[in-house]
């Protein structure tokens, strides 16, 4: 759960802060295509501003199951986000939200903030686009398919394509 008590922060004066650590399991949708294998950790600081809360998360960290883009082996990859910051507008009226505008907001009489959507978006955003089991992974032979990290084959190959069995975007 990513719903946290922020005490009476919304009724305190500008510049008031709360901070706390997070260490919780984040449930992602199957269509996110990512399976987290560790709880999400980080440090949250929330600052009260006149019309919004500034939410900063430092050292957001988790681990996920990945498939190497070159050799197709599964491995654990880490997702680290050093610092993210967002404004949660206080008591935003429905009419203030444009059709396609995505804004975070919090109701004035709430004592809790839901950081789930923010954490989810940041993790997906910082997920490796081309996961590699290690930097120098040799991948699979594009002729016989063996894993070139552990075996060698005698297939003729041109060095250019050897490291990229798939076309990179
Ligand atoms: Zn690999
Ligand atoms: Zn081969």
Word description of this protein:
By secondary structure, this protein is mostly beta strands. It has 2 domains: 3-136, no CATH class; 138-169, no CATH class. It is 8% helix and 36% strand. It has 2 helices and 8 strands; from the N terminus they run ββββββββαα. It has helices spanning 116-125, 159-162; strands at 3-5, 17-24, 35-36, 40-48, 52-67, 74-90, 104-106, 112-114. Strands 2, 3, 4, 5, 6 and 7 form a 6-stranded mixed beta sheet that branches. The protein is elongated and about 70 Å long. It starts with a strand and ends in a 7-residue tail after the last helix. The model has no long low-confidence stretch (mean pLDDT 88).
SSE layout and pairing:
Layout lengths: L2 E3 L11 E8 L10 E2 L3 E9 L3 E16 L6 E17 L13 E3 L5 E3 L1 H10 L33 H4 L7
Parallel strand pairs: 6-7
Antiparallel strand pairs: 1-8, 2-4, 3-5, 4-5, 5-6
The structure holds zinc ion (2 copies).
Please write the string of helix (H) and strand (E) elements: EEEEEEEEHH
Task: Count helical runs.
Answer: 2
Structural class: mainly beta
Percent of sequence in beta strands? 35-45%
Which ions, cofactors or small ligands are bound in this entry? Answer: zinc ion
User: Mean of the pLDDT scores?
Assistant: 88
Low-confidence runs of at least 5 consecutive residues? none
Radius of gyration: 22 Å
Largest sheet: 6 strands, mixed
Number of domains: 2
Number of strands: 8
- Fraction in helix: under 10%
Straight-line distance between termini: 35 Å
Please state the overall shape, judged from the principal axes of the Cα atoms: elongated
């Amino acid at each position: 759960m990513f719903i946290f008590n922020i005490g009476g922060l919304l009724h305190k004066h500008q510049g008031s802060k709360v901070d706390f650590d997070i260490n919780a399991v984040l449930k992602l949708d199957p269509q996110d295509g990512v399976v987290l294998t560790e709880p999400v950790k980080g440090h949250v600081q929330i600052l009260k501003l006149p019309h919004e809360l500034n939410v900063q998360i430092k050292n957001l960290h988790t681990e996920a199951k990945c498939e190497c883009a070159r050799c197709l082996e599964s491995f654990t990859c880490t997702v680290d986000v050093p610092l993210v910051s967002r404004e949660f507008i206080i008591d935003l009226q429905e009419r203030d939200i444009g059709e396609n505008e995505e804004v975070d907001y919090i109701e004035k009489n709430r004592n809790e903030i839901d950081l789930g959507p923010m954490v989810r978006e940041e993790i997906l955003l910082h997920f490796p686009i081309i996961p590699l089991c290690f930097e120098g992974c040799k991948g699979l032979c594009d002729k016989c398919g063996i894993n070139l990290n552990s075996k060698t084959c005698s297939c003729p190959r041109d060095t250019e394509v050897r490291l990229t069995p798939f076309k990179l975007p």
